[in-house]
Amino acid sequence: MRLRQFMATAALAVCATGGAAFAEVTVSHSNSPDLDMADQVAALMGAEHATVGAVAEDRLAALATGPKKQKTAKAAKAEDPAQPVLIRYEDTFLAAQPAPKGDTQWQCLQNALYFEARGESLKGQFAVAEVILNRVDSRDYPNTVCGVVKQSGGGGCQFSYVCDGHSDVMRDRQAADKAGRIAAIMLNGAPRGLTAGATHFHTRAVNPRWARQFPRTAAIGAHLFYRQP
Question: What residue ranges define each of the domains in the chain, with the CATH number in brackets?
Fold first, then answer.
């Protein structure tokens, strides 16, 4: 098999050099039984050696390895994954982000942040976003942002603004812009490092029954955060 591969490579080299290497080699076509087979093999091997020797090293390397495969965009992306978003909980960092826009899920998260946490610090608003996205990832809750924030049960809504009877119009443009930027950052895969996987929160003004059963994970501004066991 190795001899066959070597002869195939030599044949390719012959094509590259136009067959000039065989100009000085004569192979007998005699049918005489006295013709020594070893002489024929030696002549052929010598011809192959001369042919290979006449081809430049880079050309031989190309013949041996074959054509290079072009990387697809998907393969290139896999080799160079996107860097994680690094968050600074500062107004200057938020203002430097692209203008907020997105799909329906982004709008639902923006609304939830605006109506549930617009009076909180940046950390407080990012923390509420973490809770919503942690619920999306949990098997115990709907698997979309809109499904989570609009979920009802237990005689009420999971997020009070949904069923408080007030209009859900974001009149404070600055607060709406901030909520939209936070929503876009979090939906783009920013790390959730504030609440240690919290799935619940409440203001310090209330004391829900479940808060005595769930471990508290963080206290940020007016909100206390908990993780469902």
Answer: 2-65 (no CATH), 91-226 (1.10.10.2520)
